């Protein structure tokens, strides 16, 4: 659906944790009625194994939505960001630090999501889900041709991102093994 109008403005399929930003996200979507324009499927308990049906629903949601909402969970970064990229659905990423050791903003000024930011990820970063209604209103004004170009740019960026990371990883492995072999 690279060149087609997508029927959903956005999507979120995931677990809603009590007193989390995900709960705030759901409240904001419902408050403005945007949950009717978005593919939303929430559950209260995390399920470790997806079924073929739930996987297909998830893939369809990504494929049929212009934006994929990526709230933090246990970690700031999650697979949803990258899966959205692979389907040309622009990630709307909650740009906040979660508890844990993935980075400390007082030490690492680019944290969280510093790798994505340093590589120019064409995402929408937000600090609070209260910003979402304005993002969705703007999204409603974008014409199909602009969305197509944006999808193409996202897919190209994602391919470049994966290639760059593969090269960096390979170089680190090679240099580590070469250095160890010289000892």
From TrEMBL:
One biological process term from GO is:
protein O-linked glycosylation via mannose
Q: Domain RXYLT1 C-terminal, which positions?
A: 1-178
Going by the entry's taxonomy, the superkingdom of the source organism is recorded as Eukaryota
Species this protein is from = Pan troglodytes
The family database entries (InterPro entries) matched by this protein are listed as: RXYLT1-like, RXYLT1_C
GO MF term set? ribitol beta-1,4-xylosyltransferase activity
- This one is known as TMEM5 isoform 1
Task: Give the gene symbol.
Answer: RXYLT1
């Amino acid at each position: 659906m690279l060149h087609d109008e997508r029927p959903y403005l956005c999507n979120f399929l995931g677990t809603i944790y009590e007193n989390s930003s995900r709960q705030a996200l759901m409240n904001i979507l419902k408050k403005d009625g945007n949950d009717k324009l978005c593919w939303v499927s929430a559950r209260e308990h995390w399920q470790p194994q997806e079924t073929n049906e739930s996987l297909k629903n998830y893939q369809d949601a990504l494929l049929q939505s212009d934006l994929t909402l990526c709230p933090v969970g246990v970690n700031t970064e999650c697979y949803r960001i990258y899966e959205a990229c692979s389907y040309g659905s622009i990630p709307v990423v909650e740009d906040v630090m979660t508890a844990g050791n993935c980075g400390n903003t007082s030490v690492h000024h680019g944290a969280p999501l510093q790798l994505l930011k340093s590589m120019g990820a064409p995402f929408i970063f937000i600090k609070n889900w209260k910003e979402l209604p304005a993002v969705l209103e703007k999204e409603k004004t974008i014409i199909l041709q602009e969305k197509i170009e944006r999808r193409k740019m996202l897919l190209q960026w994602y391919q470049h991102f994966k290639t760059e990371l593969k090269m960096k990883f390979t170089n680190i492995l090679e240099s580590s093994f070469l250095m160890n072999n010289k000892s």
